Write the structure tokens for this entry.
Amino acid sequence: MVYQTTLNSEVSYTGVGLHSGVDVHMTLQPAPANTGIVFVRSDLPGMPRIEAKAANVTSTVRATTIEANGIKLFTIEHLMSAFYAMGIDNCLVLIDAEEPPVADGSSKVFAELMAKAGIKVLDALRREIVIDRLYRVDDGDKFILAVPYDGFRVSFTSINPHPLIGIQYGNYEITPESYLSEVAPARTIAYEAEIDALREMGLGLGGTLENVIVYNDDGWMNELRYPDELVRHKILDIVGDLRLTGFIRGHIIAVKSGHALNTTMAKLLAEEFKG
């Protein structure tokens, strides 16, 4: 049996949103059992709330967006990934903008904040999603599947036509220890030639070489933390997107998957294991 958890104390972080470029203050607060992860817009009248769950996903363009009660939050995947890996069931996320801070482009800061706050075990059982057969979502040459496994493991194959990146493969058992050392520090990545187009779309306005690793046809524009940092960040994203459906006991295997496929799998599992 596994019991639900929350944070032991309140922690805060201030930064800038990756896509919005807006300054944002975020506070993570302990919450009672069966609350889940709930975002609270502290800057709006009535402080409206939105649950971080798969059914509330409305967009996956360059980030995962949830929307309900007349509000939306986007680029939540890095924070949600840390919630998963650190085993946090319940938390109120007070935030005064539509996007969490990007920090350094990874989830390392968030995971460390949660570790600093400490974890409190609650007197309520966690309901795990135990994968009992193969579940699969395809989109052309991309796919994500879940198969039975006693634990939580993520395997990802990234296939990028750029010769600098090529094929990368990552395979990690997700525990707090392995996540903090092998996955959490992996940062989001951009191709320099795409940046102007993204900014014309209103995306990446808060991106800098301090929070995004950028490559061009000559090489990397900043120093990598790992030679395969791209695939590690892809795994970070999968963990965050699947946290929208809860905690999973199974092995997730993906090829070229992105937020769209990840959240489709989250919705599929949420529907299959509801009740």
Summary: The helical segments are 77-85, 108-117, 176-183, 192-200, 229-242, 259-272. The chain has six helices and 19 strands. The mean pLDDT is 95. Residues 129-272 form a domain with the lpxc deacetylase, domain 1 fold (CATH 3.30.1700.10).
